[in-house]
Amino acid sequence: MNLKFTFLLAWYYGLRTVARGPSYIIASLSSPLTLLFIVFIISRGSLVKYAVVGGFIGLVASVALSSAGDAAFMRLQLRMQDLYVASQVNPSDYMLGLTLSYLMFSLPGIVLYSAIGYLEHIFSLDSTLALAGILALLVVSTSSISFIVSSSIKHVRNVWGIAAIMSVVMTVLPPTFYPYFYIPKIALYVLSVSPVTPAAVLTQGVFGLAPVLFQEIPIMIAETVVYFSLARYLTRWREN
Fold this sequence. Notes:
The chain is globular and about 55 Å long. Helices cover 75% and strands 0% of the residues. The protein is mostly helical. The mean pLDDT is 84.
């Protein structure tokens, strides 16, 4: 692995983007914070802790999923992947660099939700460590889905709408901002095709908001491996 390239790419498209365009941060936070407000109003505060812990999941996933447009733009318009054909950079280095940049781009939102969670007294050492592991798996799996979509697009104009729809469907329909036991088990397993579902279920469990469904752990790990492997296979340095 070319770790130097991976971290430089993450720094340029992650931290530099945060510094150059604060408006992008506000845009990425708008949906999770809006849903947090709606849940607070509708439940009269009774479900606010679910919305707070779900905010971590929804933020990281929505940023990674909506990045399919950026990945397609860099592949089709900037032809960045073609630049690395003769270099020591391989597709895994490129994918991990962009994936890490999406996580860095989510950092301001993670800090904000951490402050809200602190005020709600929901954190413990065990839950914080578990959340970090869940978010790490989630950003890899959802970024991989973005690479799969962007690698299948032939023209960049088609990807923006797909990325927006995918981000909403895969983060709002799963039990991200509401208790997972509100929906039937069969529906829960169907929704588990999105990595957001096992991530949300496990997060609610480790924060003591619902029983822990341990069967979601191998599901999330398997999805991360499968989606990353498929994305690695589909990512091409030059067009056929």
